[in-house]
Amino acid sequence: MDQLYLDPYLPSSPLRLHQGIDFMKKLIVLLIVIAVTIYAGSPYYSAYQLKKAYDAKDGATISAAIDYEQVRPSIQNQLTEQFAVTMTKYPLVAELGGEPLKEAANSFIMQAVAGAITPQNIEKVINTQGQANTATKELAAAWAIASNQVDLKNLIQNLIIHRGDVNAVVKNQMQQIMEKQADELEKQAVQGTDSDKPKLSYCGINCFTISGQVKGYPLTIEMQREGLINWKIVDIVLP
Q1: Can you give the pTM of this predicted structure?
Q2: How would CATH label the architecture of 13-56+192-239?
């Protein structure tokens, strides 16, 4: 009896079926590799886009990448906590000013951050790099207060002269600091350098940090994954 002959190149032949299955396996592996690469590489691409937008003074792109509901309270907490630490170093100031001084300073910090960390102001600051507006000056003053750059001798004298009128003293001190910080900001905008290659690193599967210098100031930006490949700025760690 003649043996049944099967053409190996027929669509239904075992050889063709095996080749088809093998091809599908390779295709699935390739797709998985591509997906993992895109997933893992997405924050690097986001960081590149942010750097590109900053260099091009594209404030709208950077402004849209920020989660203000997380960034704003984080900066407020950083500054108020830093101010509390600063005050522990100067017990005489704390004694003369007392709780009203702490409340007045914290109130200024909270308002300064709320006014500066907005979509409109961030876009304006990036678009006009080197030009400090009122909101930016107030934020710089808040940072100066928190980081122990207040003229304490003048502050004590004012507290004595104004007989403990903390609001008057703080208002006067804020104006002086804002003027000083405005000059400092303009100087840094001209002389300060930006990092050519910021340090990029994962801080968790859904957490990514960008560290470097902006106009001479060291900053760390923390991003959080949003969905599979999108990222949002959720924190800015001040110097």
Answers
A1: 0.77
A2: Roll (3.10)
